[in-house]
Amino acid sequence: MYWPLPSWPVLYLYTGAIAFVLSAFAMPAAIRALRRYNILDRVSTDKIHTQPTPRGGGIVIFIAFAIAVLLPDYRNNPMKGVMIGSLICLVVGALDDLRGGVPAMIKLAALTWATLIMSLFGVQLNLFGYFPLDLFLTWLWIVGVTSAFNGIDNMDGLAGGIAVIVSGMYLAIALDAHYAAGTETSLSWFGLMAAGLIGANLGFLLYNFKPAKIFMGDSGSFFLGFVLAALGVMGEWADSRVVACTIPVLILGVPVFDFTYILIARMLKGETKTLRQVIEHCATDHLSHRLVWLGFTQKRAVLFIYLMAFALGLTGLMLRNSSHGFDSALGLAQGAAVVALIAVLMITAGTRQAALERRMKDIRPLAAIDEAETPQEEMRKTA
Q1: In degrees rounded to 5, what are phi and psi of residue 53?
Q2: Is the CB of residue 127 less than 8 Å from the CB of residue 237?
Q3: What predicted TM-score, i.e. pTM, was given to this entire model?
Q4: Are residues 26 and 172 in the same domain?
Q5: Which helix (H) or strand (E) holds 41?
Q6: Each residue of 185-218: pLDDT tens digit?
Q7: Which of 145, 199, 236, 331 has its CA 20 to 30 A from that of 228?
């Protein structure tokens, strides 16, 4: 028997609720299984957690997301392309979690493969109307955003929360399109996937917000970064090409700017020189870490980044709905102001941390001198 689909806003609500329930109830079992098989993220100098924690929560996030999105039995080509690409990313990320590492070039190859498959289903930028150039720009966007999202997965609750905020902005765009048209639109699948991501990540955050009982791992950050980037490709942003390119960058502004800033800063400091080093380098110098350098607790740093992501996302939504050039200019200026604020915080934190490290280097030799025996003490021992 054929059951007609409910109205799209209601379907989005069902999808998000199903994904949340599946994720929330399956996560404890995943935690026990990962601990049993010793699939743990160990403590190291380039990480900030203080005890081994199960990694691989992204597998549960994906399963909850996929079941909830596919359950309504609604399919179209763009949706199929994104789902196949996300499955490729999940498999590679899960291998990284289970094996304790996958070479960066294999991850890059997987993203390339996923982008090619996705483009065959119609998910591709259409900026210049020249297929090879548009495909290359699509690949660049997918690789950049996925890498950026992977990089921001560095503090309890951060990546999952950013995924919820970005997906919420995407869902708002889909709802706006539905209320304007009053029927199914080309963004129906877009909203369906956004709702699934919101629910699955909210279920995960119950166990990931500090103190985290489980990490999403590369299985989560790799597939989530890919899906969020892919949805950024397909959104009906604006008639103006400049505005259309700017809106998804604003919605994904926090991970994109964090990644761009860190990439440039590391190259200027000489920490990374080759493409392989850029891909593989891992350090505690991201926005979240720098806020902690400034005196934030980890929870407050995460909440502050949520606020920045929400502000940039709202700016993107306002820019999408602006009908005049002056309104668009104001939106762009507002987005630039928020990005400038983030830049000032990162620069200030970096400067303070560098000064602190210099002082510590100066103190250590003095401490060594104080601890050394004086000539008089050596003479008494000799006598």
Answers
A1: -130, 135
A2: no
A3: 0.90
A4: yes
A5: strand 40-41
A6: 777 889 999 999 999 999 999 999 888 999 999 9
A7: 331
